[in-house]
Specification:
The structure is a single chain. This protein is α/β, with parallel strands linked by helices and 364 residues long. The chain has a domain of 191 residues: Rossmann fold. It is built from 16 helices and 5 strands. It has a 5-stranded parallel sheet with strand order 3-2-1-4-5, sandwiched between helices. α3 links the parallel β1 and β2. α3 crosses α10. The longest helix has 18 residues. The radius of gyration is 20 Å and the shape is globular. The structure holds zinc ion. The site of zinc ion has 8 residues, from α1.
């Protein structure tokens, strides 16, 4: 198998190309992210403060590293009046819950917990998983909707996300967050009323295009990713800072443990490996190599210990929660990638193309 000589991505990664030195196209295209600049971030914060709302910023918390670090920045470094929220996706780990509780306590901020109707949530995850091999998309959609809802209800001018340059390039090729695709799969199963679907979505028509439009005209809160504006500590240093400041605990069973906040993550990653022949960690470790956080040898060593070839230890628990039988589960790995791509929102597809063209022009 072809493996990149710089990172550890292999030929199974979608659309990957290797050059004559066996360097992959992601490494070749990689440009170290240049932060947009702290002064721009400060201007956004000042703008938010000028609105004189009860809260300057909403920080969605998952109990994981990135979102907890954002809370630390917002409260301790930038002195914003912060509201925090968490969407209960049904799979929050005990460590994640403890981290949320502790960080909220230490920063003395208000925290809101959001839930979907748990039976509808379970049925939606089950239907999405059995039909498309994924339910992370359904969770992402509901999380986003709940974040926007809380921001609107409390009139919070900006939302601060923990997504970072490190997280780029670990996507699945399917448009799992597309609302039209999501609705199509659920309607097709005939198990849901339109009301069930719309209640879960909260904003049933909010696809990428409308999201951008509404942000532009100020109909919804501005979404900001602070880690793209400033230079960031390494993944490890970030963990140390929040352990020190916010009592944050890591999942100590692994040296680097992304997404331990969700107990279903090992299972979703296992399925990803089965359907697409690559999984998240190979992307994460490759990103860390490109950012000079770890050596390639170290990445290979970490990946050898982390690789998911067998069903994760807790897979039965997750199947029980979702009420999925072993037989149904066995069929999931036969689902073909990109099965529902023609069912995605047309306006989204055109919009995504336009963005791509714009980015290509920017590069020239
Ligand atoms: Zn590479």
């Amino acid at each position: 198998m072809n493996i990149c000589s710089k990172c550890i991505i292999n030929e199974n990664y979608p659309k990957i190309i290797f050059d004559e030195r066996s360097v992959c196209s992601i490494c070749n295209d990689h440009q170290t992210h240049k932060p947009f600049g702290e002064e721009k971030l400060l201007a956004i914060f000042q703008n938010a403060k000028n609105k004189n709302s009860k809260y300057d910023a909403l920080v969605p918390l998952s109990g994981g590293k990135d979102s907890t670090y954002i809370l630390h920045l917002a409260v301790n470094v930038y002195k914003l009046k912060v509201l925090t929220m968490t969407y209960d996706n049904g799979f929050l780990s005990q460590i994640a819950l403890a981290n949320i509780k502790k960080s909220v306590e230490l920063t003395k901020v208000e925290h809101v917990f959001c839930h979907s109707d748990s039976e509808t949530q379970r049925k939606i995850y089950k239907t999405m998983l059995l039909n498309s091999g994924d339910f992370c998309g359904a969770c992402d959609i509901a999380t986003k909707a709940n974040i926007l809802k809380v921001a609107a209800e409390y009139s919070v001018p900006i939302i601060l996300y923990g997504s970072s340059p490190l997280e780029n390039d670990s996507f699945v090729p399917d448009s799992i967050q597309d609302i039209a695709r999501f609705k199509y799969i659920l309607r097709n199963s005939k198990e849901f009323s339109e009301r069930d679907i719309n209640n879960f979505l909260i904003y049933p028509n909010l696809n990428l295009f409308y999201l951008s439009l509404y942000k532009k005209i100020g109909k919804i809160s501005q979404e900001v990713r602070p880690l793209f504006y400033i230079s960031n500590p390494s993944d490890k240093e970030m963990g140390n800072i929040i352990t020190d400041k916010l009592g944050w605990q890591n999942d100590n069973s692994r040296e680097y443990s992304k997404h331990f906040d969700c107990i279903a993550e090992p299972l979703t990653n296992y399925i990803r490996q089965k359907i697409y022949s690559y999984e998240r960690r190979i992307c994460q470790y490759s990103n860390m190599i490109r950012r000079n956080e770890i050596s390639r040898d170290k990445a290979l060593q970490l990946y050898a210990a982390d690789q998911i070839n067998e069903k994760p230890a807790n897979y039965k628990d997750i199947l029980d929660i979702l009420q999925i039988s072993e037989n149904d589960f066995a069929n999931i790995e036969n689902i073909s990638p990109l099965k529902y791509e023609t069912k995605t929102s047309k306006i989204n597809r055109i919009f995504a193309q336009l963005i791509k063209i714009k980015q290509t022009f920017k590069k020239l």
